[in-house]
Fold this protein.
Amino acid sequence: MKSNYLIVGLILLTFFVISFLTNIIGPLVPDIIASFGLSLTMAAFLPFAFFIAYGFLSIPSGYLVERYGEKVVMSAGFLLSFLGAFGFAWQATYASYLVSLFMIGSGMAMLQVAINPLLRVAGGEANFAFNSVLGQLFFGLASFLSPLVYSYLVTSANNTGEAPALANALIKLAPESMSWISLYWLFAIVSLLMVLVIGLARLPRVELKSDEKAGAWETHLQLLKEPMVIRYFFAIFAYVGTEQGIANWISSFLETYHGVDPQTTGASTVSSFWGLMTAGTVLGLVLLKFMDSRKVLIGFSAAAILCLAMSIVGSKSLALIGFPLTGFFASVMWSIIISLALNSVAQHHGTLSGILVTGIAGGAIVPLIVGSIGDMVGLKTAMHFLFLPLAYILSVGFWSKPLINNQTISIGKSDS
C-alpha cells in the first residue's frame, strides 16, 4: 500500500511538471517577439506548434499505452520533452523553437493519456475522483508558479551576484540578451530527471476498463457521425482555445496598451490568471453539489464574458483585475463539458475521451487567429474574437441533454 502512495505522489508530480512546461508560453511572448523580431502571427505559431501536437498524438497515444504500457509511454513522453527543451536551449532560433515546442507538446500529450488510468489503479477506484481533483490542483499550482519562476530568472540575470548558484548557472547557459532561455535549460533538467525517476519506479500493472480503451477506428468513425459528439468536440476546442487565447496574449496586451513590464507585472498577472483558475475549480466542485452543472456552466460562462470585456476595454487597473477573474470563471468549463459529453453517451467512453482530448488542438488555432487579426487591426480588436468561443461554451449549457445529470444535494428536503 505504501508503494501505491508513492506512485500517486509520482503521478501528482507528473501533473505538476506537465502544467509547468505547458502554460509558460504566454508570459514569454513579449520577450520572444523582442528576441526574434516576430510579428504577432509568427509569435502565435509557437503555441500552435505546441498544441497541434495534441491533435496528432492524443488518439495514437491511447494505442501506445495499450501496447507498451504506461511506464514506456511516460518515459518516452518526458524524453521527447527533454530533447525538445535541450535542442532549443542549445540552439536558440525561431525555427528550432517551433520544433522544440512540437516535441514538448507531443510528450505532454502522451503523458496526459497515460496517467489517468494509472492514477485509478495506484490510488484505488474509491479514491479516483478525489485524486483526480488533487491532480488538477497540482496542475493549477504549476501554472501559477511557472510565470513566477520565469520572472525570477530574468530579474536575477540583472543581479547575478545576489542570485542562488542554480539560477546563476542557468542564466550563464543562456545568451546574454535572451536570459528567458534559461527557463528551457531548467525544463530540460526537469524532464531528464523525470525520465530517470519513472525508469526507477515500479509502476502497478494497469488493466484498462472497457470505457478507458481507445476503441477501433470503426468506433471512432461511428461516434464522429453523431452530431452531438461533434458539438462537444468543438466545445473542448473552444474552451482550450479561449484559455490559451487569453493566457498567451495577456502580457503582450498589458505591455502594448498599458505600458506594463512583461517580466514582472505582466508575468504576475498571467500567474494570477492560472492561480484564480485553480481557486475557481474548488468553488466549482462545491457548487456542483448543489446545482445542475449546466446552470453552473451558464453562470460562469456569462461572468467570464463580462470579465474579459472589462479587461479589453477597461482601464489598466480593470485589466489587471479582469484577466485573472476571467481565469476564475473559466475554471469549471473543462470538467463540466467533459462530464456532460461522457454522460451523453451510454458506451464507448474511452473512444469519446480520445476524440474530446484531440479538441485540445483549439489551443493551437485560436491564439493563431488572434495573432493574425492583431497584425491587421491591432491586438485589442483581435482579442474580441475570443467572445465567439466563449459564446459557444455558454450555449452548451442550453443545448446539452445528458442521459445522467450530476448528483446534487437537496437542502431542506427529507429522503423519504
